Amino acid sequence: MRPIDLASRSGVALRRAFQTQQLRQAAGSRQYSNITSLPPTYEKLHSKYTEVRRVLGAQRLTLAEKILYSHLDNVEESLLNNTNNGRDIRGKANLKLKPDRVNMQDASAQMALLQFMSCNLPQTAIPASIHCDHLIVGSKGADDDLQAGIQTNHEVFDFLESAAKKYGLDFWAPGAGIIHQTVLENYAIPGLMMLGTDSHSPNAGGLSTITIGVGGADAVEALVGAPWELKAPKVLGVRLTGKLSNWASPKDLILHLAGLLTVRGGTGYIVEYSGPGVETLSCTGMATICNMGAEIGATTSIFPYTEASARYLEATRREQAVKNAAAFQNFPGAGASEDAYFRFKADEGAQYDELIEIDLSKLEPHINGPHTPDLSTPLSQFKSTVQEQKWPEKLSAGLIGSCTNSSYEDMTRVESIVRAAEEAGLKPKADFYVTPGSEQIRATLERDGTLQTFEKAGGIVLSNACGPCIGQWKRQDGVEKGTVNAILTSYNRNFRGRNDGNLDTMNFLASPEIVTAMAYAGSTTFNPVTDSLTTPDGKEFKFPAPHGLEGPKTPFDIGKDVFKVASQPPNPNEKVAISPTSERLALLEPFEPFPNSDLSGLKVLVKVSGKCTTDTISAAGPWLKYKGHLPNISANTLNTAVNAETGEVNVAYDLDGSKHTIPELAKLWKERNQPWLVVAEHNYGEGSAREHAALQPRYLGARIIVCKSFARIHETNLKKQGVVPLTLANEQDYDKIAAGDEVATVGLYDMLQNGGQGEVQLKVTKKGTGEEFWVPVKHQVSKDQAGFILAGSALNLLSKSASV
Ligand code: SF4
């Protein structure tokens, strides 16, 4: 079998892999005896890794560091600058990375591709794929929903498909699956570094990759072959012992961790799992845990490569990847020092910045929510918490699956309890929805009878797409907006309005098994571990503890042909499909560069209070359809933000006191050429890696955002779009600034010109009184980012260098 480079299944790199392989075979180098006998991805990885070892000497490295640092463009420059000669890299070094590939979902791919098109290049520098998953509304069931979704969104799908053809990208059509599941099944192999234009991209860390969720502008940097910059993350170790049992599942581990660490606890960290407990987890279970690392704000999460990882690769028909991984880990062979080997695990003695120990044997199921993924309650205390908090006791719907939890193991564990309930004559009392993560998992579950079991029980199988997880859900149960109600999902995120656009829906997160059992009870106070249900013939029924299979007994079924990937070499003659009259797609106009001076005359558009997530700044749901049309989508900007001064949602006041929605006022000010800023509280921009949350304010005239703290991805996204993120040096200054106040920056222009070095202050002039005061602010602008801001956006800079 040939050691083909599995980093790419698409045209150019695939052909290159074949050519390299042919050359090797011609040379007779069939043994893994020298570096050129490794597949190209691993050749490159090993050669960089050797440099990393040379630069860092005997330092013990975590797995995350090994993979990350072995993807540096210039190892020495990144690891030795500003790092105390390599001894103090984490949190200090600016890593300039060359990822192996980029994965994009349809909603974010639109803007990424529109930006890539501005660079006028004939093809992408590295392999990439597009996954049509976010735009299908879940309603009646897979077939109807998919047809309706294709009809409604054909313009966008045509655009994406034509761009894939033109630039040589892999294209996964609507219904083929959700990005993270598809990536895990097809592209993830140990040691890769990938970027994904979606915050749950770290899902692939379950297969020992470093995969980071980014905005489209970051993706474009990688796609044009420019290095992608990241402040070296710290490493948070989670050491697992014991083994999960009974109702506890991998989901419960991450739900529990989210409770411990909160939505901000992982910020600036890679979470790396280790310990004997790791060996007891399935590969897909590890992916679930990594997927939800986004909920604690982690840069990404990663597990070591285990026997379960190899079994998953085999089940997904990637036997060659298993052989390649084994060959790589055994390279360079007898006689080499231990440090010459790249093992897919941490070095013995590697240090973590923080270490948490969890005994899996003691873990009980958890339920997290409502409205935030870190409000974690152990199942045994959930009933009393529901009653104390006066949360609804009626459960309206249970939804399982999605990119987070639709593995064979998840679904067969659910199947075991559904079968038991069916035999007892029970049906779910709440609506019960199932979302397979991909065509491959759907077809396999159908082949093995699992889906039929769900349907027989009354479950509605939705299409292989995001659907209700991203607000694409047409509820069938008559629950109107404004009605307080409770739903349980096995998804990963539960901000207000996330699933059905109803701010009063309380969304709780749990494992698929717990969601399903509680859907049978139709109650949020039911504890399947201890409580019983009454069967139609009056008997007591207690659910057995769930059991399932890690993977199918025979390899996964590939599914229907129509959902197979379209891989193609770039075709320069392909015309990218964008109608000039489209309401959904619009070519981008470059943003104007930074002025040759500090900013002055800015006005505070609104001061927001509480959580201000990327959903708050750029809502999803019905707005997803405008992702490729910046002017149109900007009409949702901050439309669920709370005005700190009045407590009103989506209300802002013009300088003359007239009342507007926030986006209306922003648009008015844009028309008046009135630049503005927003003042906000902590973790501004947490949540999805949604670059629209940076693009839209920029398009409408925002020049700076001032807050108590930022979420990492969003802070970077702002800088890439030319908006300057500043944090208050003294948090109490938040109280002093109000809407309508005038703000000028002092030191900002110098700081930008000095490559991010220097201090910045704000001079605030109060509206009405004219009183002036100074507000010291902090920034995290690197040299490259200073260049982006000065150019007006990262894209302005990239397109300039691409055209040179
Ligand atoms: Fe889709 Fe939800 Fe997964 Fe995001 S988290 S990729 S919306 S299923």
From TrEMBL:
Name assigned to this protein: Aconitate hydratase, mitochondrial
Locations listed in the record: Mitochondrion
Entry's family note: Belongs to the aconitase/IPM isomerase family.
NCBIfam families: aconitase_mito (TIGR01340), PRK07229.1 (NF005558)
EC number: 4.2.1.-
Chief location category: mitochondrion
Cofactor(s) of this protein: [4Fe-4S] cluster
Pfam families per UniProt: Aconitase, Aconitase_C
InterPro entries: Acnase/IPM_dHydase_lsu_aba_1/3 (IPR015931), Acoase/IPM_deHydtase_lsu_aba (IPR001030), Aconitase/3IPM_dehydase_swvl (IPR015928), Aconitase/IPM_isomerase (IPR050926), Aconitase_4Fe-4S_BS (IPR018136), Aconitase_4Fe-4S_dom (IPR036008), Aconitase_dom2 (IPR015932), Aconitase_mito-like (IPR006248)
PANTHER family per the UniProt record, alphabetical: ACONITATE HYDRATASE B (PTHR43160), HOMOCITRATE DEHYDRATASE, MITOCHONDRIAL (PTHR43160:SF2)
Swiss-Prot/TrEMBL keywords: Iron, Iron-sulfur, Lyase, Metal-binding, Mitochondrion, Transit peptide
Gene responsible for this protein: ACO2
Domain Aconitase A/isopropylmalate dehydratase small subunit swivel: 603-730
Cofactor binding, per record: Binds 1 [4Fe-4S] cluster per subunit.
